[in-house]
Amino acid sequence: MSLKKSKVNHEIIKLKGEISVFFETLKEVFQTFGSPVFVPVIIFIISKILKVNNKKAFFSALYAGVGLEGFTLLLNAFTPIITPVVKSMVENTGIQLPVFDVGWQATALVAYSTEAGMIFLGVGLLVQTVLFLTRWTDVFQPGDLWNNYSYMVWGSMIYMVTKNMILSLGCMILLNMYSLLIAELIAKRWSTYYKYPNCTIIAMHNIEAALFTVAFDPILNAFGLNKIKLSPEELQKKLGFFGEPVSLGLLLGIFIGIMGNFKALGTLAAWGQVATMGIATSAIMAIFPRVAGLFAQAFLPITDAAKKSVKNGSKSRKWYLGVNDATGYGEPATLISGIILIPIMVFMALALPGNQVLPVVDLLALPFMVQGIVPLVNGNIFKVLITGTIWFSAGLYMCTYTAPMFTDICASVGVHLPVGALLITSFNILGKPLMGLVFLAFLSQSPVLIGIAVAVYLVLYVSFRKNKEAVYDYLDQNALKNTAEEAKSEITANT
Amino acid sequence: MRKFNVLSVCGSGTVTSSMIAEKLKEAMEEQGIKITATEAKPTEALQLSEGGNYDFITHTSPLPKGNYPVPTIDAVGFLTGFGEDEFLDEVMRVIKEIESKS
């Protein structure tokens, strides 16, 4: 018996050794080739495992490399323009906003190119499929694999600070389980409100606000806000200017430019810099997303193959398919409240003490970010604005805190930012107060704090699953307390 | 080869619309039809389609109200994988309609 035990122990030690050798080798190869070479290879291998044909697998892989290289080229060209301006803005006006928001698209590219990200590409797919097939959750997440980068960002930061891949994986998996729980919590409301039968969104960064909304909404009702009906279509038309990447970019660029040249506005050189900043920011807003579009094509064959694998095993049970949040974007209350939040969030960023983030590219993501709130309050725009302002403001602090770590990760995949001058973040992806707490527990490496994070999850999970129908009924009834009409969206073929 | 220009619309005009466009290109190639696609946001769709360069629109986000000069096809089923055939049938129907007009 004891002999057997020691043999098992020996095997475990050997296995641990092999794992660490594997990660070391991986790291070395990774550093030699760099992510624009390494990521395509990984994508090719995963595509082949999922039996994608050679031609498709090759193009998927190449698109991934092209997207990544494009992003690096762009950001390396943009930072020399913006860095001196932001620096002098901080010096001249006392506006302490040295953290520039590069947006979710850029963040996704960075996340997919880290070691932790690439490992999670496979692990995440596996975990999500197993959780679904074992009925731990009724949401099939691989319907929207693209959004996995949301966990990878946090996991990459854990790995960079602690150099512990197991810890990093643990963090990503727990975050994934938390977000699956939230996805299941809002599944019925989301599906009913946006009129997509048996679908829900799973992007962690866009559903996190749901937890806050559930807790906060009764307070808003106590003040009678459920009776307020706002239908600001006119306001949306006027503010539509903010909703376009090029015009919003120009406006913000000019604003930063003027702040940066505050003491020299009488000189021609200052206005030269203001104008350059305006056009450059506008260009970044318009071009970044295109690069992400190239990168996204790499994920199509993998997502498709994953979806096919579950179709057969999922008959005779009530379940929800994870879909991309683009499906809710154009719904009137969602789009309107998202756009009105753009100037509000810029104001909050300037006004909040201690905040160092200037939201820029992800302001355009606000109509995605409110999708965790809108269906729960049945499209009550006024409530969405209040809830969103509070929660996303809290998010600014999480961005501020994580900015140095995220900037380091970007540097590790090839974006060269001048030290100490400018930090970068993504307002959408990193501005997550609750998910950030889970991350901080893992970052502390304290078994107690990690234990608490796991325990809280288990308590929430068990209480939700035990009372699922009652919770769904409560959320439905609570949503219907709002007198705002359910917005009629223009879904043509589906209805 | 028959050629068609498609405006592919999703929320941000980037990720999902690129995926839909790529998938549609592949599916149509088997039918001997060449698809050229441009990605766009819902708020750009009306203006772009009025420019006259597109034969039809596919969208995974709801489109803003308006008089679109070309057919619009809901592509959510194509995205989720649960209405692929219905979507492709609809595309073929629209294509035949366009061809019978010209």
TrEMBL record, chain B:
Alphabetized UniProt keyword annotations: Sugar transport, Transferase, Transport
Pfam families: PTS_IIB (PF02302)
Protein name: PTS sugar transporter subunit IIB
InterPro entries: PTS_EIIB-like_sf, PTS_EIIB_2/3
UniProt lineage: Bacteria, Bacillati, Bacillota, Negativicutes, Selenomonadales
Transmembrane segments: none
Domain of life: Bacteria
Domain (Phosphotransferase system EIIB component type 2/3) ranges: 6-64
Organism whose genome encodes this protein: Pelosinus baikalensis
